[in-house]
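Section 5.1 Outputs to date
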Amino acid sequence: MEHFLEVKNLRVSFTGDIQKSIAVDDVSYYAEPGEVVCFVGESGSGKSVTQLAALQLLPVPPAVIEGGEVWLEGVNIMQYKADSPQMRAVRGGEVGMIFQEPMTSLNPVKTIGVQIMESVILHLKCSREKARERALELLGQVGIPDAAARLNDFPYQFSGGMRQRIMIAIALAASPKVIVADEPTTALDVTTQAQILDLLTSLAAKNNTALILITHNLGIVARYAQRIYVMYAGKIVEEGPAEKIFGHTAHPYTKGLLQAVPRLDDQNRRLVPIDGIGPSPGKRLTGCQFRNRCRYSSEKCCEEQALREIGGGQRSACIWSYEELKEQEKEGAEDERKETEEFGENVLEVKDLRVTYPLRKGILNRKAGELTIIDGISFSIRKGETLGLVGESGCGKTTTAKAILKLLEGTSGRVLLNGRDILPLREKEFRSQRKNIQMIFQDPFSSLDPRKPVEELVGEPLLIHKLVKDRAEYDRRVDELFCLVGLEPSMKNRVAHEFSGGQRQRVGIARALAAAPDIIICDEPVSALDVSIQAQIINLLEDLQQRLKLTFLFIAHDLSVVKHISHRVAVMYLGNIVEISDSEELYAKARHPYTKALLNAVPIPDPAIEQERERRMLPGEVPSVMKRPAGCCFCDRCELSDERCRKEKPELVWDGKKHGTACFQIT
């Protein structure tokens, strides 16, 4: 049977100075019109390289396509040279590509209209007038408001979600038959992510376009995929319909990915990460590539494992049958739950914190008013507790963290650290308090000095705050910190680029722990990590909290992660806290319309549950602080808002001092 798009036996290698590395090893897959096909797996598994190789977008050298065929509507496009007119007609014409980071994919010095029209003119061979009409039509399709006025805007003038919509418009410009979306929502918050993926899948269905989606978010896969390919070490280890992959998981690697994912419907379950790291592309194992990380491995796994039929269109590259794996799971089953904890006195209290920026105008730069970023928020965190701070991008979460850390000045209010108000302290006065409050950053690579060995980075707080007496104590303390976060002290002389993403984040955690702080602010510490590494870091933070009685302010837009790690959760919107409660209470009985919308947007990695869930899309994006509503900050997007909501600002109303909600419509 001939498929609409079919890749056969694709093999890709990269040549280095010393050895050759196999990146894609004999991969075959297909996609049909109107179908959503997902590729999942950890970073480095070969998902993106497979798609880029199929479109001949890899740099040659070092990449070498050693073999394989790519059939599109009965034509093998691998016969075309990468720079040939035929291949250029395929890329962008027959096949559209949506890349992971729109800001680096869009030309910053060209308007979005010019960039969309370029693709239309190139592939549809039409006039500029027709191309402009098509560009306006595309912007309307992808939900860019006031398209005619915004056609001449530049990429920096759009939010992240809007830039991704523009990338979709460019991909759709020539009405392609296939769209490849490479992690299109990684950096987006949950509501924008849901908007983008709903838009993308609905357009693919409407235009009968095959959609190939690359992601490591298994919730997204469960919600949108019809068929799934699971990749590991350059090979497909399991494939089949989505309901089969999730409900009848046949490969240990797929099982490991599912067990490592935090879920909204988890009941206090401890995550189970996949042990170890995958093999280096230059040092492949004999037999099954996953055997050194697999809890079910045996001597038979040293033999090469081909994909074998299981039934119902599902195939798996594992010697064990589904029934044998289930039996082994029963024998070694552990129902590990997190312990209930008791908390001490308040470590941090934020009272009526406001942050404003001055507005200036004229050549004398005179103050012409002020812009409110944080609008009088209050919360507290007890010793040994984790408070999750959630909300869409632009809600003020990171600004709140910076104000607490005095990386920017709070305009008014109080920030009490162990009972002392640190907000009015000057820099010299605050230095003695800085060791008591540390931060773990979102991107460990950009927050670690690439020129220094990590020993110096971890040990720097010890020297700055004079916490060690001599070199011997310094070395001992650094070694202790490395062991504490699960790193070998022998690695301390390496520099940042010699570590994996998860290891770099562990270095960042060790640095935050060095000064023995009273509270650590975690700003999206796992958003850039694979699901398995994410599970390792979450478990590490929980273990350290129990062992050292640490206190965390955990900022994230992934509500599944926040539910798993937090004891209480505060929901922010446009510089205001609209709801705050114990974690279990908030997730089970959310009251504010915004909180309900956030929870509704989070996909659960189970297709059966996703099919039954009621889907209600939150319209629009967080408005600019320059256009803050006069009353309730959420009234412009809330279906329950009335005249009172548009005129008066609701205050937090507490139910038994445990659940606070700022909404007039809650009775």
